[in-house]
Amino acid sequence: MSEKLSFLKRVNAWLENDTDLLDREMIEAETRLPKRESEEEREWRRRRREEDEAERQQVVENLKHINEDVTPRVGRGIYGVLCALVCISMISLLLYTVTMLPSFGSETHPIQNEVSRRYIESGLEETGAVNIVTGMILDYRAFDTLGESTVLFSAVMVVLLLLRLDPESGKYSTMAEEIRRTPYADTFYEPKNDAILQHTARILAPIAVLLGIYVVLNGHLSPGGGFSGGAIIGAGLVLHVTAFGFQDIRRFFTYKTYQRIVASALLTYAVCKAYSFYTGANGLESGIPLGTPGAILSSGLILVLNICVGFIVACTVYVLYAIFRKGEV
Fold first, then answer.
1. pLDDT for residue 18
2. Is residue 198 part of a domain?
3. Claim to verify: residue 190 and residue 270 sit in the same structural domain
4. 172 shares a domain with 192
5. Mean pLDDT value across the chain
6. What is the rounded CA–CA span in Å between residue 226 and residue 216?
7. What's the CA gap between 319 and 260, in Å, rounded?
8. In this model, does residue 90 exceed pLDDT 70?
9. Quick one: DSSP state of residue 297?
10. Whole-structure pTM over 0.85, yes or no?
């Protein structure tokens, strides 16, 4: 039917000598036809593909030659032999050192000295902590613990610098947007729409967080402390985000939340121990009561330091998981 109408229009235009209409229809017909490449254009495209392929092959050959020049086969063989010799030498040296150590429990063993006896005999009196290990870590060796917490913070910062996909950055915006648009970005490995997983997380995640808080707060009274309690809290956060996704957990934990918590915990730890270091080094009374051993509010600053360490470890566990899984917090 459409062809007949078109034919009748042309006949009518020819009868009326309407050349303008005929010209417009011819132009429209030509524009609807696919554009045909000329022989010269096809030849130019073919030569361009051949030149690109030849250039790529030349680059590959140059890289092969450079690799062979820098590390010839003989050099690579010697390098492998030297690596094996170094490893064998280090293992042999370590095994020899172990054989030269005194037997466990002997009087010449390194642990049988005045330091360990001071921890055991005077730890409760000087720190107020029933858990001698916690008293040693957060009182006698609190400077080392501050270094360990700083190392955790530095490790997270390095991971953030290397792996974080910041949507506001021009370098990573495209990749971040593609990850967000991926339909299974949050649900491919850990499906957040899994009813069994979500019901389980509703029960276990709060229990894990409460258990971690208990372990942190009772670190000076029973086995535990900031490191183990913080790891339990971090596991509860990971379980929650695995079940419900990042959009849900961002209601109460974001990147800014992480920055504020960790910065506050590190500064509080540093200020508290700086005061203790200053008073101890100058033989001054700190004025911080140790409390009654066995009570929750005891052991001086150890409870506060345990809380700071717990915050740092919990945030570190969750942020590392979030960055490696999604590229953002």
1. 47
2. yes
3. yes
4. yes
5. 79
6. 5
7. 13
8. yes
9. S
10. no
Residues 70, 144: one domain? no
Residue 14 has pLDDT above 80, yes or no: no
- Do 80 and 216 lie in one domain? The reply is no
Judge if 47 and 186 occupy the same domain: no
Find the domain containing 8 and state its range. Answer: 1-32
CB-side exposure of 217: number of CA atoms within 13 Å? 9
CB-count burial class (<10 Å; 0-12, 13-18, 19+) for 318: buried
Whether residue 20 has pLDDT greater than 60: no
Q: Give the tens place of pLDDT for each residue, 63-85.
A: 565 555 545 555 677 888 898 99
Do 212 and 229 meet the contact criterion of CB atoms below 8 Å apart? yes
Identity of residue 20: D
Q: Quickly count: other Cβ atoms within 10 Å of residue 138's Cβ.
A: 32
Q: Report if residue 231 sits inside a domain.
A: yes
Identify whether 147 is part of a domain. yes
162 and 56, same structural domain?
no
Q: Which long-range contacts (CB under 8 A, 24 or more apart) does 163-168 make?
A: 163/323, 163/324, 163/327, 164/323, 164/327, 164/328, 164/329, 165/326, 165/327, 165/328, 166/328, 167/328
- Count how many residues are written for the chain: 329
pLDDT at 253 over 70: yes
The verdict on 182 and 269 lying in the same domain is yes
What total number of domains does the chain contain? 3
* pLDDT score of 182 more than 70: no
Q: Which residue has the tokens 């998981």?
A: 321
Contact yes or no for 312/149 (Cβ under 8 A): yes
